[in-house]
Amino acid sequence: MFQDLDSTLKAMLADAAAPPEVRAADVSFDTPDKDFSPTQTTVNLFLHDVQENRALRDTAPLLDRTDSQYVSRRPPLRVDCTYLVTVWSTQTGGLKAAEEHRLLGLVLLWLSRFEVIDDRFLQGGLTIPPQLYPLPATVAQQKEGQGMGQFWTALGVAPRPAFSLTVTIGLQPFDETVPYPAVQGVDVAPALLNHPALTGRVRNRTLAPVPAAQVTVIESGAATIADRSGAFAFSGLDFGAYTLLVRVPGQPDVRKLVTYDAAAQVHNVMVPGP
Hints:
alpha+beta
């Protein structure tokens, strides 16, 4: 997770196209406090803030198609990971400040090239499974109302030149999936406002039609036999609530309560048997 993002950023700084000074520097993710004392020129990326990006929050389920079905799963949690980027030189005096300022500028310019992190840099858990969304990166964008004075005081060191780097990654906190059968076909059931009828089809658990099923409207006593496609129809009924009784030889009876009106004329019935 976060360690994989660390490795990704390290790969970016080591890329062959990066400035030579950036590639030559050591990369650290340690806390840059009073005990941090690198023995060579170092670029430090300190992960100090992790927050959900609510602007990117999405509650709509995701559907993946397999050979015979769809699988529904929850969307990933979009999280902003913010690093403080500093440079540490082993020089002294003016040479120390000059090296740190130069290298910090080169790192800033290099990282600012990537509005979205290239897939070729992604490491570990950021590749398996693949990230659903690209990983946006923002450089030197300080959050409103966020000051660095207290930050440096808490670390116990004097303030030093730094910039922020925020990368938004997707995390999947849920493993549960819900399978759905793939659509095999679409049935269009016509309905007429001026000649309404209570209609529907009798189907089994595999969605196959059940011909010759007996369908009865209990309240009116009207009965019919489903045709080869499992279809049935009752005309002349007043709009209202009814109970459909479906009988198939060798299977238990099925009752279904329906509300029949001009906008709800079609009511299919599922029976448990084959």
